[in-house]
Amino acid sequence: MSLNYKHLRYFWMVARTGTIARAAEQLHLTPQSISGQLTEFAEALGVELFRKSGRTLELTEAGTRVLGYADTIFRTGDELLEALHDESAHATRFLVGCADSVSKMVASQVLAPALALPQPVRLVCREGRLAALLGELAVHRLDLIIADRPMPPHLSVRGFSHLLGESALKVFGAPALRARLHGPFPQCLDKMPMLLPGEDFATRPRVLKWLEDHHVRPRIVGEFDDSAMMKAFGRAGAGLFFAPGFLAGYIMAQYEVEVFGEAAEVMDQVYAITTERRLSHPATVAISQEARKQLFAG
Q: In order of start, what are the domains of the chain with their CATH numbers?
């Protein structure tokens, strides 16, 4: 036996309205037609679905069970139609993975051009470790990954790294720390409290090498996997921290800190990793063009 969904719809409407007459009005059918269809449906199922209670119909125990399944079936159908209408009428989904070692402010500025395209885009952003995101890219669950390094060569994932731009790191700190700096930069950083990015950040070994090359030995007081938390501690005066120079204006205004100098040799890089050797997705092309023309132009 196969389920007759037309009969199920009639049953569902009668159960919801309480009478065949009201259901007929809703369905624009005659009461006789619905009554006949309900009889066929009950006979096909081999159960009684309704019992009379005055002028209305009450569900039997079997009818109540059938109604529960009908509710689920028609609710799922409505959700399917809504989802298809929403995606086709309003926006194209653009699935992006952001490595958790990329500053959220950097990621938001890099991705902003995708939302300014003539064709509406629904941006779906996922954050995680780069290796996990590359696995999602390999099975086409992502269109693009924003990372602070190129794709590792040892992974057996087909992907291509596109450098969007780079910016020299600057040293930031709370104004109260300036009085404790003595001598020229960067030697003045010696013995100063310092906040470092976590081990997943591509800039961490570059910063440590730069400090070593300049014979600067700061006092490391904190390490952070979240760059926003590191900046929050910097605002509180816990220590100095490194951040991309192209964000200096935003960082100073948002965290009430000052720039104490620039590590010109230490670059913070931003990559787009895709399965395409040549970028073709409109959102990815817009991101790449704007990053090179505007965001990292300086």
A: 5-89 (1.10.10.10), 92-163+273-295 (3.40.190.10), 166-270 (3.40.190.10)
